[in-house]
Specification:
By secondary structure, the protein is mainly alpha-helical. The protein has one domain: Farnesyl Diphosphate Synthase. It has 17 helices and two strands. It has a two-stranded antiparallel ribbon. Helix 2 crosses helix 5 and helix 13 crosses helix 15. The longest helix has 25 residues. The chain is globular, with a radius of gyration of 20 Å. The chain starts with 14 loop residues before the first helix and ends with a helix.
């Protein structure tokens, strides 16, 4: 089953259209984030200013706010929780960039490139701690429990990825565990906490929807590394291969790869710094072996399961926007 949603007149689902039901609340999220991270430190304030420019499309806050309106009775505190989930997300990006020694994120310098590696590590910790401090201030043990669980899963996922001794033996089961922990966990938490802010009777369904959506999102993100251009994804095409990261397209292609093609893959993964020619060759091999088609099919499967979960919720503008989000995720080019 392929997920389809209501397109805009141009034939596409835009994020701005998805955000329409919660636009007023979303406008407050940036203010909430600034309030939460405000501190008497010129260095941390400088880091925060740069991070606010990197916060991107605000998809996770959008999901939280839409989920809060899934039963038609959102609570004002949802905007603060939306700020918290985006701060946690930014913390993961800062730490990921520090671990990977990345110099660009969405076409902008990373914290570790603009400041130092040490500042990046401390900045990520700062964002996490301020998010937790805000949850304590709000006195909401359930929301704290949900976000703490997601943060723990993010850490375990990262450590499991780092502990893989042979990247090319990374299985589809390993990959699914990884994306469930590193991506889907926070999507699920955003939707579940949104449910706690106005749609509590559907918190289980919203958490399940968020998990499947996050899985689909990450599969598409990994596909973009094979099909996107650096101008649209904000990072060089083939960066995962350059960093010797194995994702679903390659995992699927390895199953049927002939010896000559496998040798090219082995050569890339044994090169400390693979060149563009090596990356282009492996990208071509993965496509020839059906790895991209397989990954797209798996992504659509996750999106379809998310769509089925949404059918259990009452009809509303928020539910329609959550359905549109599935198509937006599956059709995105950046």
């Amino acid at each position: 089953m392929t997920v389809r949603a209501r397109p805009d007149p141009a034939g596409q689902v835009s994020l701005s259209d998805i955000q329409l039901p919660v636009r007023a609340s979303l406008a407050r999220v940036g203010e909430e984030m600034w309030r939460i991270v405000a501190v008497d430190s010129a260095l941390l304030n400088g880091v925060s200013e740069h991070l606010m420019l990197m916060k991107g499309k605000m998809l996770r806050p959008t999901l939280l706010l839409l989920s809060s309106e899934a039963d038609g009775a959102a609570q004002p505190r949802a905007a603060a929780y939306a700020g918290v989930v985006e701060l946690i997300h930014l913390a993961t990006l800062v730490h990921d960039d520090a671990v990977d020694h990345s110099v660009l994120r969405r076409g902008m310098p990373t914290i570790n490139a603009l400041f130092t590696h040490q500042v990046a590590v401390i900045a990520g910790d700062f964002l996490y701690s301020r998010a937790v401090q805000e949850l304590v201030r709000l006195g909401d043990l359930e929301a704290l429990r949900v976000f703490a669980k997601a943060s723990n899963e993010l850490t375990i996922g990262e450590m499991r990825q780092l502990s893989a001794l042979d990247a090319l033996r990374f299985s589809e089961e390993d990959y699914e565990f990884l994306i469930r922990a590193k991506t889907a966990a926070l999507f699920s938490a955003a939707c579940e906490v949104g449910g706690l802010c106005g749609a509590e009777r559907f918190r289980v369904e919203l958490a399940e929807y968020g998990s499947y959506l996050g899985m689909a999102f990450q599969v598409v993100d990994d596909l973009l590394d094979y099909t996107g251009a650096s101008a649209t994804v904000g990072k060089p095409t083939g960066l995962d291969l350059k960093e010797h990261k194995v994702t679903l397209p390659l995992i699927a292609a390895l199953r049927t790869m002939p010896p000559a093609s496998r040798a090219a893959v082995d050569d890339l993964f044994s090169s400390p710094e693979p060149d563009d020619a090596q990356i282009a060759r492996v990208v071509g091999i993965v496509e020839e072996e059906g790895g991209l088609d397989y990954a797209r099919e798996r992504g659509e499967g996750y999106a379809s399961r998310a769509d089925e979960v949404l059918s259990r919720l009452p009809e509303s503008p928020a539910r329609r926007a959550l359905q549109d989000t599935l198509t937006y995720v599956m059709e995105r080019r950046a």
